[in-house]
Amino acid sequence: MSTTVKLISGDGFTFVIEKNVAEHSPTIKNMLDVSHGGAFTEALTNEIKFPEIKGKVLEKVCQYLYYKHRYAAEGSTDRVPEFQFDLELSLELLMAADYLDC
Amino acid sequence: MDLNDRARGSGSRNPRGGASGGTGNTIKGPHSALTDYLQEIGVSRHFRERRRAETAAATAAARGQGQGQGQGQEQQSAATLEQQPTPDRGELGADSADAALARDLQDEENEEAETADSGVGSSRMATRHSSRQHTAVVAASVAAVVTTEIPIDTGKGKGAAKGKGKKKKMDSDSEPDNDEKGDEADQRAGLNRSSARKGGRMKQCEVCDKRFLLRGEHDETDRLLCPNCRRSIEKSQNEAAAVSKRAHAITSSTAAPKRRRLKKTADGLLELEAGLPTLQDLCVRAIAKHVDQVESFGDISVQSLNKLCRIICKMRVLDEHTLGLFLGADRTSVVLYDCTRLTKDALARIVRMSPGVQTLALEYCGRLDSGVLDAFGVGLRQLARVQLEGAFLVDDTAWARFFRVAGPRLRSFQVRFSGFGPVAMRALITHCQGLEELRVSECTDFNADCLGMLAAPLTETEEALQEPERLLRDQLSGEVAPWRPLARLKSLDLGHPHLVMSSKTAMRVIKTLGSQLRVLDLSGFKDIDDDFLLLGLAPHSQHLQELSLAECNSISAEALAQFFAQGAETTMGRGLTRLSLSRCYLLTDAVMHAVVRHSCCSLRSLDLNSVDDNLSEKGLLALAGHVLPAEEEEVAASSVVKGCPYLEDVDLSWVRCTSDSVMENILETCGRLTQAKVYGCPEVTIFAPTRPGLSYVGRVCDTL
């Protein structure tokens, strides 16, 4: 089960995604990194809490991470669809994206 | 014998013959030392022929100038000379032929090196380097006069020969050494000197920023890429295309969308690589497009808005469109961290859209000029706190006008890098009597007179104040109020002045204002001395909580120690909360002990950046509460043994005696430490003690 990680939002929602998908966010990657110095708790339990990010926003973030995982390797083809999200979400999504650096 | 004779005869009769006659010719006729040498090192007729062929077209006009020089066996070299105009004909005939030969040698060596494989290149370069030196030596021995002219001739010759060669080459041709470097640079850029004739322009690659040669026309819709980047991007595109072809059905046209995606990259928002935009980009773009529908964004708290502003400024996309997010009739505070893209009109919008603003803080507002400042003064009727950093276009009189209009309302005024000078200062003193916080930092016009205006005017300096007053009187056409001190001032920051601030003036200011100040920052006041500290600051610092004497190098360590020792009696350890003594190179351990005794119970932030010269481990351990044994008798009475338990952040960068064990001791005592800056401390390693909540900034191991 070490190939998945749990991302827990501030309002209690849990999202289980694959580890290599989650590592598209450098912030998450550093949290799960066991090689450098001491390992964080998150790396040992494979659970990351985001108390400042709401469930709806974290869901969109997970969707984006999968989107990136799916289409990043393909380079510039014209088949990459646009990533959609609601306008109401965009501000909080921006803050979450800034924190996760993705 | 006969054969040999015939061969010899034929050899010598050949007009182009004797010299170097090719690698196979073993018959030696009378050669110059130079020609002999050339043969030795292997420069042969072949290379010279090739070069001649290249230079033939360009300098046809110069043909015939070099003819008739030199002896028979030198005609070989003379023939090559015909392409190059030589100013030194006549008596220097033979010598210049040798010089030309030397030039040829250099050219050929360049070609040799250029065409050489990169793997072999290094060894060739080495031999070329040594042989070049030999050449120079030989040429020098041949004609002392000519040697000085060789560099210049070489440049001219090459310039004429190369025709449309690059300017860089011509410039770098003036010396043999520059030649080499120019060649290496050209080689790296993918140039071949022999193909330089085709011409082209030096461009800079969009992706890797290296310079490269662009031949022919540049397609405007295409990106400017050096050959390496173009190859790698095409390779990735081909791979991607191959993958998509395998995975999906083949679509009809891929050309048009590809160009669209490439055009988007010019935006700057997409990554330069042919990849996905980041989530941050997507969000910002969506927000920017729909800024007018701010209501649809829902309820945003002030902190979220502030965070949003930070993010948008970090991404350098704060401009006229995104500005709308942060303005509104109900906003009381406008804080923008990067106003570089806001034009004057955009800044003026702040007045129109948020007239009720009370706090205005604009950083990097270089486009803010006097007109906009006037608009702020007139339009923002409730403005109480102003912070403008980088408004360098605003001049002295504009500030004076601003103070006249808005001064009485101001509670806090902070300005950096602006044209703030004596006139403005006088206006400030006159009009801003309610000012509680003042910061004028890094302003080039802020001189000692300005500083003096903070203190009560002496009769002899009254003359100096007349000038600004006269200016003000002209503007006000009325009476100028007499000088009154800033009675409410609690925080004074005059850090890093660009002009010299004399110690005496500073003394006067401190005597007037010192007793009411909570925050004092005199960083960069290099002139203030022990007298200022002991006679000026010490008696007038009862309420001082934050002090910065960074870069005040004229204060001796004894004076500092005495200052803190004197203060310790009155403060009883409840002294300063923030102290900065960065770059006070004279600091010693005794000062550290005194500091700890003075402020042990209150010190939250300590800055000892670069205080390396006289400080040792014992000084740092004072923070942890260790004292010298000699002072044991005092220890029982005072509270020094506690160290500084409330210390939250400490800057020990470049204090080389900081080590893991010192940090361990400090951490034992300072339970609340959250940040330790340790740039340039090689003894603080990855094994430094750490705990949750503590972060080391600038450890050497962290960057590797």
What general form of chain A does the structure show?
globular
Largest interface: A-B, 31 and 38 residues
Q: Share of helix among residues of chain B?
A: 40-55%
N- to C-terminal separation of chain A? 25 Å
Q: Tell me the major beta sheet of chain A.
A: 3 strands, mixed
Number of helices of chain B: 28
Order of strands side by side in the largest beta sheet of chain B? 3-4-5-6-7-8-9-10-11-12-13-14-15
Overall residue-averaged pLDDT value of chain B:
72
What fraction, in percent, of the residue positions of chain A are helical? 40-55%
Strand order across the largest sheet of chain A: 2-1-3
Largest sheet of chain B: 13 strands, parallel
CATH class type of chain A = Alpha Beta
So what's the overall shape of chain B? extended
Beta-strand portion of chain A reads: 5-15%
CATH architecture of chain A: 2-Layer Sandwich
Supply the helix-strand structural class of chain A.
alpha+beta
User: Oligomeric form of this entry?
Assistant: heterodimer
End-to-end distance of chain B, in Å?
76 Å
What's the β-strand tally of chain B?
A: 15
Q: What is the number of independent domains of chain A?
A: 1
Mean pLDDT of chain A: 86
Biased composition (Acidic residues) (chain B): 106-115, 173-183
InterPro entries (chain B): Leu-rich_rpt_Cys-con_subtyp, LRR_dom_sf
GO cellular component, one term (chain B): SCF ubiquitin ligase complex
Biased composition (Basic residues) (chain B): 159-169
